[in-house]
User: Fold these one by one.
Assistant:
Number 1:
Amino acid sequence: MAITSIQDIHHILTKRHELLRATRDFFYERGYLEVETANLMATAPPDPHIDPLHVQISGKGPFFLHTSPEMGMKKLLRSGHRRIFQVCKVWRVEDHQEMHNTEFTMVEWYREGTYREAMHETEDLVAFIARRLLHPVPQHLLPPYPLHELGEVFLKRMGFDPFPLDRGAFFDALRERGFPGIDDRDDWNSLFFKALIQEIDDAIRSPRPSLVAGWPFSISTMAKRRDDNAAVVERFELYIDGLEIANGYTELVDPAQQRERFEEDNRQRAGMGKRTFPVDETFLNALKTIDTSCAGVSVGLDRLLMALLEKKTIGDVIPDRLLV
């Protein structure tokens, strides 16, 4: 859906201004340094499930528009600043035009600590912005928010925890329950995403923001493994009414492990018939300089505005939207 009337454009521009100002005020008040990183990159993170836009410049390239500022911002941590944030545009090739726009606005930040501290800060950010935009603020938007562990949600909803299972056992568990849409070509990750979309998303859907932790190691390339369960990482996502708003984790800062994970991601991309990406050596070298635990979070600001204003599509909050 597109914004068409002058009144709607005026309203959304005002609310986007309030959103952006509140976001920056939140981090300024907490002693964060605002930074900028390049949008144009010579390579890209080889995430099998996220594809960047390719750019040619005077016949040279391809270059890539960043899918998040993560790699650029983590390079800046070598400066000694431990609390940094950025509000920027990012680009991703995705479908689902009702909930996704190819170009969208993100705030991303890095701080000392772990995903636990980052979760609480994400709650505080959402509540801070809600108080600026909504008068009065609905009580359900105020923290603390419920926290769900994915393994426990699977167990309650589907009768089993997938994380101790290999691909074959996971497939058999789904087939025994008559789960639709799976076949012999699905690897573990594909089975996980199908179950997540068809069953688990509905189990946690609520107008009240919800935190979901315990994400698989195999789909979390730059997150630290959990000490209590090597199959999962120290990662969370925040959802509002079934819509993913935020993603955060304790950062993997071991360059050797990070190289192995990038190489595995490239193998997966090659197996899917997708372009592979050279490893960013400057990024790996920057990880060597991080000597304390740190966490990062990204929040899709268009989606957050959608949720706070109770809009049905992302086009309701982006004036002059370009559909591609």
Number 2:
Amino acid sequence: MWRTQHSAQSTNRRRRGNLLLASVPWLATILLTAASGQSAKLPRFQDHSVSSVYRGEVKPPDFGNPDQYDGTDLRCFGGDPAEYAKGHANFAGHFVIGRCTCGSGCHYLFMWDGLNGKFYRWFPFGPINVGPYGLGSTVPPVGYKGEQFRVDSTLLIVEGCIEGTCDCATRYYNWNGGEFKLILSRASRKPPRCSK
């Protein structure tokens, strides 16, 4: 009888241990998310809405002296700024986000204030690669969405790999009027070259 009772207690302990082990990944995710200060809920554009949207003509960006640029920068910032004034605000109420290519599948963002032309060249993530990676290989190619933003929101979503790295993620940033603050970063699939 003692063996039967001992065997039942051992079985119950194993079941409790298995339940605890099964909950560890879930529990670890919650603890890591809480420890990093990041929300488990994905940020949404409507959660970061602006109070008004400027619909008028935008001022051209103040690129400064074009002689300071070369290479791909010259192509994006060395031309006539008045050409950029033909656009409309597309981000955070009165800002304009543009893209500049840095090669095949690679680009970086720049931005200016459509009300006064103030130019913002550096984004915290720098150039990103969006692919597609792995074309012509036996595995399906990997591609990323790039950027998503709206004129009525301060949220910027960037999906891709930091140029020259295997740091691939979907990153959520909030523009606070002076800089982009990272809200959440979620790792993405990595290109085939990163799994070798």
